[in-house]
């Protein structure tokens, strides 16, 4: 009888890590008094904390991944020749096979690729539409004289909207930008998979196909930011009708095939600690990029990376499209997100691919955006437990170059970002409990005043003081 009852319950399908742990790195636990001193010394900016003062480090998923034994073995096969390293050719073959782009220009990390691409494609006065800005990408576009225009769907700016593809482009907005400025002024449309600043939200294949059609009709290139394309592919497999039977590798390839080239930060999906590249299909553009990479990064067969690092990226790219890996990666993020949701903490929905994003405006409704609620919340979470998160709101968004005012973006978020293959489910439980503690006493959290503001990418080095 009992057995019968049990058999009627829906089975919960658990995800589990498709690896076992071979080496561990001890973590330091701190007292609240020690964290108060560390936070004050860091100017209430989690970027300025020493990592040894952090217990669970959810600042970023960038370069913080644990490499596999295959990648470490690959590191020993580094060919550190100045020119023509065999690891470059391995990386080139991996990029051609997995992403399908013809030409590879290695760079030290993603922004190195963004710098070179912006220099070769953008002229002063140009317009670059994209599915939401990313900090370094937009800055390089602006430094080259361009202006970024956001053409993402409105739902992306609404933390509560459960649209399954909040990374989609609004075709009406894109058409309007093309009509207003003319295709001559648009060197490319910039497409991110997934969209970091929207909360790790995916774009659908169907939407990207429509963007391709529109761009083809006007002779406009599409440049892809595939930094987290495997996570995007997983969401497509889970959510997009007709894609259930496709492999992650097939979806990744289908996304890349709709674009003309990419700027890649290998420090995320590719499961390494450093690296990036620019990849292009066009022969002439490739030639220009190769000429410039020697000025800013290094020779065109290493571009700022050691041979061993290129080997680790090549192997990591293959691992990034393994289904069990990406299922566990996104599953762990969802585990933390749903735990926080159950506690009643306001989070961006649906839960994203690389992190859980707390809605700081809903969490701290008593704070105006110009006293930086997300910055204050990240600081408070650190004080509570030593968990390090990152602000993604008014500080990250910076000032409007035309008005000099804070941009006050619609999304004022704290990002709890999960490094790949690093933390356990118990770490997620502790993180959720720490956020819950802060949530219980949220009315007492005070805003911050910025007392030092760097001119560019201010979120990295700005310093703050508590108000009152
Ligand atoms: C979507 C996206 N593009 C580009 C970059 C820049 O890459 P990197 O940090 O390797 O310079 C990042 C880094 O966080 C990113 O998330």
How would you describe the overall organization of this protein?
- The chain is α/β, with parallel strands linked by helices and 468 residues long.
- It is 41% helix and 13% strand.
- The chain is built from 17 helices and 14 strands.
- The protein has a five-stranded mixed sheet, sandwiched between helices. Strands 9-12-11 form a three-stranded antiparallel sheet.
- Helix 8 (205-218) links the parallel strand 5 (188-192) and strand 6.
- Helix 9 crosses helix 10 (248-257).
- The longest helix is centred in the last third of the chain and has 21 residues, at 323-343.
- The termini are far apart.
- The model has no long low-confidence stretch (mean pLDDT 96).
- It binds pyridoxal-5'-phosphate.
- Pyridoxal-5'-phosphate (PLP) is lined by residues 62, 109-111, 134, 136-137, 192, 196, 225, 227, 265, 267, 276.
């Amino acid at each position: 009888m009992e057995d019968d009852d049990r058999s009627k319950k829906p089975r919960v399908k658990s995800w589990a890590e498709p690896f076992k742990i071979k080496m561990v790195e001890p973590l330091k636990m701190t007292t609240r008094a020690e964290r108060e001193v560390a936070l004050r010394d860091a100017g209430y900016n989690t970027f300025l904390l020493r990592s040894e003062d952090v217990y669970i480090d959810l600042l970023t998923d960038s370069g913080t991944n644990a490499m596999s034994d295959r990648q470490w073995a690959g590191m020993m096969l580094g060919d550190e020749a100045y020119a023509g390293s065999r690891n470059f050719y391995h990386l080139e073959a991996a990029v051609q096979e997995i992403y399908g782009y013809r030409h590879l220009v290695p760079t030290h990390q993603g922004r190195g690729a963004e710098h070179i691409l912006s220099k070769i494609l953008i002229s002063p006065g140009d317009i670059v539409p994209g599915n939401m800005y990313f900090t370094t990408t937009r800055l390089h576009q602006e430094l080259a004289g361009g202006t970024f225009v956001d053409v993402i769907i409105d739902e992306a700016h609404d933390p509560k909207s459960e649209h399954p593809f909040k990374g989609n482009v609004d075709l009406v907005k894109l058409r309007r930008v093309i009509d207003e400025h003319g295709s001559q002024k648009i060197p490319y449309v910039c497409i991110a998979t997934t969209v970091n600043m929207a909360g790790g939200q995916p774009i659908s294949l169907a939407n990207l196909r429509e963007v391709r059609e529109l761009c083809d009709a006007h002779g406009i290139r599409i440049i892809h930011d595939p930094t987290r394309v495997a996570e995007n592919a997983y969401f497509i497999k889970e959510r997009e009708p007709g894609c259930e039977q496709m492999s992650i590798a097939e979806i990744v390839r289908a996304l890349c095939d709709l674009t003309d080239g990419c700027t890649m930060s290998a420090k995320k999906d590719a499961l390494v600690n450093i690296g990036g590249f620019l990849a292009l299909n066009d022969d002439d553009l490739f030639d220009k990029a190769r000429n410039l990479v020697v000025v800013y990064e290094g020779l065109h067969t290493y571009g700022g990376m050691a041979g061993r690092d290129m080997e680790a990226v090549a192997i990591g790219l293959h691992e990034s499209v393994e289904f069990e890996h990406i299922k566990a990666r996104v599953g762990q993020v969802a585990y933390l997100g749903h735990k926080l949701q159950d506690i009643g903490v306001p989070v961006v929905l649906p839960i994203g691919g690389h992190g859980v994003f707390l809605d700081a405006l809903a969490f701290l409704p008593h704070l105006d955006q110009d006293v930086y609620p997300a910055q204050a919340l990240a600081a408070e979470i650190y004080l509570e437990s030593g968990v390090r998160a990152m602000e993604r709101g008014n500080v990250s968004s910076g000032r409007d170059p035309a008005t000099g005012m804070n941009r006050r973006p619609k999304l004022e978020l704290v990002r709890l970002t999960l490094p790949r293959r690093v933390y356990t489910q118990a770490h997620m439980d502790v993180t959720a409990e720490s956020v819950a503690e802060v949530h219980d006493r949220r009315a007492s959290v005070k805003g911050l005043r910025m007392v030092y503001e760097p001119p560019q990418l201010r979120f990295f080095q700005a310093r703050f003081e508590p108000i009152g």
